[in-house]
Amino acid sequence: MEDYNEYKERKRFYNSKSWENVRQQVLKRDNYECTWCREEGKVTTTGLEIDHIQELQDRPDLKLEPDNLRTLCKACHNKRHTRFQYGGNQFKPKEIKWKDERW
Ligand SMILES: [Zn+2]
Q1: Contact 2, 16 (CB under 8 A)
Q2: Own/partner long-range contacts of 38-43 (Cβ < 8 Å, ≥24 apart)
Q3: Cα(54) to centroid of ligand 1, in Å?
Q4: What radius of gyration do the chain's Cα atoms show?
Q5: Residues 4 and 10: beta-carbon distance below 8 Å
Q6: What spacing in Å lies between the alpha carbon of 53 and ligand 1's midpoint?
Q7: How many angstroms does the Cα of residue 100 sit away from the middle of ligand 1?
Q8: What's the gap in Å between 36 CA and the centre of ligand 1?
Q9: Dist. CA 23 → ligand 1 center (Å)
């Protein structure tokens, strides 16, 4: 199975014909607008990218599922991934191997 933590696997995926097809489908569904901007009453139709709601590396089975995809502009996409990193940090393994044992 592909490991989408690998840059080259992600790149291969984003270059695939099936991705291009589903990308077009999602763009069309979202009316070629950023869905987050639209929620704020703005219309952004430039710099559009397709975002995986459940990350590619976490749910590769949903990678071509339109319900897991949405159109974001570059700015919103960046915002989202910054946010994701913050969220991600909270899920870092809690247990640290150094036990606070006194000798
Ligand atoms: Zn946007």
Answers
A1: no
A2: none
A3: 18
A4: 18
A5: yes
A6: 15
A7: 47
A8: 5
A9: 17
Interval 15-56: pLDDT, tens: 999 999 999 999 999 999 999 999 999 999 999 999 999 999
Instruction: Grade residue 90 by pLDDT with cuts at 50, 70 and 90.
Output: very low
- Degrees, nearest 5: CA angle 26-64-53: 70
Q: What is the identity of the amino acid at 101?
A: E
Q: From the CA of 82, how far away is ligand 1's center (Å)?
A: 14
Tokens representing 65?
């599922």
Summarize pLDDT for 47-80 with one digit per residue, the tens.
Answer: 999 999 999 999 999 999 999 999 999 999 999 8
Q: Strand, helix or coil at 49? A: strand
Tokens of 86: 């913050």
The values of phi and psi at residue 72, to 5°, are -130, 150
Spatial CA neighbour of 45 closest among 73, 21, 80: 73
